[in-house]
């Protein structure tokens, strides 16, 4: 199995560690948000952490072993996950903006059982499954903002990882599994034949 260059392996390892940490933190923060209230798949995107974690693990394996096979997998998954996570990040940004607007009017919310019903400028916003008071919306906004930052970092690292994977796989000039011996044969040097000297004329 062919290997990648040492410098590419170190960069891949760094990217893998960053992606793995981002994936784990996204899962943890999403779980905390789900514990505070019943949030949807966009607001509690623990599964996005799994999507980020998979290429991160491949990058760590490729960076440690410096093998081309996990690096190819990292390249392919980086491109796919960059598109998927990028779309989800855009949706998450909209949700965070909405929560940011409603967290300022949590004092106008009324709690009915486990549901907070808020009214702002004629728009009704319901948050179901709330255990405490309605100020939990501010807490969820902070957690969601943290998840959004982690998603943005993940997209940037995935973009850089796709470039690194392309360079490491397609432009690798490293070892291809063995040393090549070049044999140079020295040929004989042929001198041009001597020209016949003209005979001297005697007078």
Give a quick set of tags describing it.
3-stranded antiparallel sheet; mainly alpha; 4 helices; 203 residues; elongated; 60% helix
Would you spell out the secondary-structure blueprint of this structure?
Layout (H helix, E strand, L loop, with lengths): L5 H31 L9 H20 L2 H35 L6 E4 L2 E6 L2 E5 L8 H35 L33
Antiparallel strand pairs: 1-2, 2-3
Helix pairs in contact: 1-2, 1-4, 2-3, 3-4
Give the beta-strand count.
3
Shape: elongated
- Describe the main β-sheet briefly: 3 strands, antiparallel
Multimeric status of the protein: single chain
- Which structural class best describes the helix and strand composition? mainly alpha
Mean pLDDT over all positions: 77
**Uncertain stretches:** 174-180
Strand content: 5-15%
Amount of helix: 55-70%
The secondary-structure element order is HHHEEEH
Compute the gyration radius: what is it? 32 Å
Number of helical stretches of at least 4 residues: 4
Strand order of the largest sheet: 1-2-3
Distance between the termini: 85 Å
Describe what this molecule looks like in 3D.
This protein has 203 residues and is mainly alpha-helical. The protein has a domain at 6-103 and 135-170. It has 4 helices and 3 strands. The chain has a 3-stranded antiparallel β-sheet with strand order 1-2-3, with no helix packed on it. α1 runs antiparallel to α2, α1 packs antiparallel against α4 and α2 (46-65) runs antiparallel to α3 (68-102).
């Amino acid at each position: 199995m062919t290997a990648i260059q040492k410098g590419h392996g170190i960069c891949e390892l760094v990217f893998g560690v960053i992606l793995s940490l981002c994936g784990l933190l996204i899962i943890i923060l999403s779980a905390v948000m789900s514990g505070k209230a019943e949030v949807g798949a966009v607001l509690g995107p623990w599964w996005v952490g799994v999507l980020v974690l998979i290429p991160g693990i491949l990058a760590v394996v490729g960076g440690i072993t410096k093998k081309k096979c996990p690096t190819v997998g990292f390249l392919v998954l980086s491109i796919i996950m960059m598109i998927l996570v990028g779309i989800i990040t855009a949706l998450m940004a909209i949700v965070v903006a909405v929560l940011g607007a409603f967290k300022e009017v949590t004092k106008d919310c009324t709690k009915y059982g486990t549901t907070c019903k808020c009214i702002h400028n004629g728009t009704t916003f319901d948050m179901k499954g709330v255990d405490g008071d309605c100020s939990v919306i501010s807490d969820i906004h902070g957690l969601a903002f943290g998840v959004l930052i982690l998603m943005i970092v993940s997209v940037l690292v995935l973009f850089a990882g796709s470039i690194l994977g392309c360079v490491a796989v397609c432009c690798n000039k490293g070892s291809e599994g063995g040393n090549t011996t070049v044999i140079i044969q020295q040929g004989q040097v042929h001198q041009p034949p001597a020209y016949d000297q003209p005979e001297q004329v005697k007078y």
